[in-house]
Design goal:
heterodimer, A: Ubiquitin-like (UB roll), DNA polymerase, domain 1, 2 domains, five-stranded mixed beta sheet, 17% strand, B: alpha+beta, Uridine Diphospho-n-acetylenolpyruvylglucosamine Reductase, domain 2, Enolase-like, domain 1, 3 domains, five-stranded antiparallel beta sheet
Chain lengths: 161, 269
């Protein structure tokens, strides 16, 4: 392993834990993490909105921190723990946050929702009772073109009281 | 979007990273990737080899010296700075890091990446110049230190050359600092930014986004009129683009310099 690290390679076998399941795959060095999740692991919940790091639809939790998976290489994730939107619900049992999104009509087309849920999940884990300003700051990197954000903020606030 | 083909290496020490960077022509360090991955998508950069610095724990420290010097490892993320009690010794550091992009980017983007990419619109180059920071650069043959004022040498270019690695950034003690920016959207890309500090002896005002490198002004006093006059006298030649004309950038430079110096004054003992 040590010897392998000292050499530059065009592709590599990586082991990544995604939603509690360990996956081992060969990936090209140029493969983005979002493509690895969607195309190699068939976890299509994380979306590609802009592909330029602006929209946040590809947001995942990476070793517990929310990041945009279009701005990372899959090979960088070797040895990491990843959580995607598919990992939130327990079977058919949605999380309180997911149910709150439904109850508050916090989505219309739903394209941004996986990223919104991951950013909000990260916020609530770190800070269970955020202020509205903190909620808005937490989803600053997630664009929504349907809701005007009001209902999203309300949905997050409702589960943090 | 697919990236161009690239090779990848993940060294486990700075020494090993330096070996890779000098062994492969066209090798480039990969820090947090929040700039580099996107410029590779846009084909604005096409390194042959990416040397991933993520395992280099020696670049991840935040230390507070007995004399108040804050030393940041190059791989420290913006979120690390914001959350660090040691970095809070120089409060402006965390405050400016909290204005960069969004939480996702702050969780991955690094201080070293920000200053080594040296995009003229970045936040940290003018700030670190104003604070009188010192950069430590390591090469296979040894180590040298460069004052921030000499570190930024051109658009996307720094004193850290091929085969070299920025390892740490040292910021002297102080707190009478200010930072002001006009951005594209809240916490977005800077149109003009200005950092100011009163702690380095004479007042230092540094204007970003108006030239290839941060423009350093020493107005002599921290009097607001003197600061405005220094900006006007600097004969700034900023670019015009879709976001702002050169004239408007010149106007912003003066206004933001006044704001930054007022913030710094408010923090003086």
């Amino acid at each position: 392993m040590e010897a392998a690290a000292a050499t530059a390679v065009r592709s590599k076998t990586i082991t990544v834990e995604v939603n509690g399941v360990e996956y081992e795959r060969d990936v090209e060095a140029r493969r983005l993490l979002i493509h690895f999740l969607r195309d190699d692991l068939d976890l299509t919940g994380s979306h590609i909105g802009c592909d330029t790091g602006n929209c946040g639809a590809c947001s995942i939790l990476y070793d517990g921190l929310v990041v945009k998976s279009c701005m990372m290489l899959a090979v960088q994730a070797d040895g990491a723990k990843v959580e995607t939107v598919e990992g939130l619900a327990d079977g058919d049992e949605l999380t309180d946050l997911q149910q709150s999104f439904t109850a508050h009509h916090a989505l219309q087309c739903g394209y941004c929702t996986p990223g919104m849920l991951m950013s909000a999940t990260a916020l609530l884990r770190e800070k269970p009772h955020p202020t509205e300003d903190e909620i808005r700051k937490a989803i600053q990197g997630n664009l929504c073109r349907c809701t005007g954000y009001v209902n999203i903020v309300e949905a997050i606030r409702a589960v943090s009281q | 979007m697919l990236l161009p083909e690239v090779e990848y290496a993940r060294p486990s020490s700075v020494q090993e990273a330096l070996g890779l960077l000098s062994e492969y022509e066209g090798a480039r360090p990969l820090a947090g990737g929040q700039t580099l991955v996107n410029v590779m998508k846009a084909r604005a950069a096409a390194p042959d080899v990416l040397v991933d610095l993520q395992d280099l724990d020696e670049l991840k420290g935040i230390d507070l010296g007995a004399d108040g010097t804050v030393t940041l490892g190059a791989m420290v993320t913006y979120s690390d700075v914001i959350g660090s009690a040691e970095a809070r010794a120089r409060p402006i550091l965390g405050e400016v890091c909290a204005q960069i992009a969004d939480v996702q980017v702050r969780n991955r983007g690094t201080v070293g990446g920000n200053i080594c990419s040296n995009d003229p619109t970045n936040h940290l180059p003018p700030l670190l110049v104003a604070l009188g920071a010192t950069m430590t650069i390591r090469a296979a043959g040894g180590e040298r230190t460069v004052p921030a004022e000499q570190f930024f040498v051109g658009v996307y270019q720094t004193a850290a050359g091929p085969g070299e690695l920025l390892t740490t950034i040292s910021i002297p003690a102080g707190k009478a600092d200010g930072f002001a920016a006009v951005t594209i959207g809240k916490d977005g890309t800077c149109i003009v930014n200005v950092a100011a500090s009163l702690d380095g002896g004479s007042p230092c005002v540094v204007v970003g986004c108006v030239d290839a490198v941060p423009i350093v002004l020493r107005p002599g006093t921290d009097d607001e009129d003197a600061v405005r006059s220094a900006v006007r006298g600097a004969n700034l030649q900023p670019p015009s683009d879709v976001h702002a004309s050169a004239d408007y950038r010149r106007h912003l430079a003066e206004v933001l310099a006044a704001r930054a110096i007022r913030q710094a004054q408010g923090r003086r003992n």
